[in-house]
């Protein structure tokens, strides 16, 4: 297995519920290391660009509104198989369908307000990391 990097967001619902620590605890217990982190409050334009892949989906407008309602934590995670590992620790998109012990099961409210984002593959991980973190803010790759 390879050491990978992936991109993670602690969404506005989890931040406003003071669950930043709970999310990071799950990620770290799951074998992921936070190697870069920053709190930001997305503008509408930034949220629309970040989620542009979903621009034709019916939930796009609501998603952009949700993601801009308050501050978020953007972070880069590193570890063995980090992309898939993070998706496992997060759980299914819909908290009602997420496995016990996952972040979304424990901290998510519904299919929109689901506490965390995680990249879904190597290409999106690279793009999403670059969207928020200049190379100079990241430790050198192993
Ligand atoms: P994931 O975050 O698990 O990769 P998607 O990429 O499909 O899921 O969707 C991006 C985000 O859009 C989800 O995390 C969730 O916040 C929101 N979302 C997805 N599907 C729906 C839906 N059917 N209704 C409302 N919001 C949704
Ligand atoms: Mg996705």
List keywords for this structure.
142 residues, alpha+beta, four-stranded antiparallel β-sheet, 7 helices, 39% helix, 20% strand, binds adenosine-5'-diphosphate, binds magnesium ion
Question: What can you see in these coordinates?
Answer:
The longest helix is centred in the C-terminal third of the chain and has 11 residues, at about 120-130. The protein is α+β, with helices and mostly antiparallel strands and about 140 residues long. The mean pLDDT is about 95. It has seven helices and four strands, in the order βααβααβααβα. Strands 2-3-1-4 form a four-stranded antiparallel β-sheet, sandwiched between helices. It is globular, with a radius of gyration of 14 Å. The chain has helices at about 10-15, 20-30, 45-50, 60-65, 80-90, 105, 120-130, and strands at about 5-10, 35-40, 70-80, 115-120. It binds adenosine-5'-diphosphate and magnesium ion (MG). Adenosine-5'-diphosphate (ADP) binds next to loops.
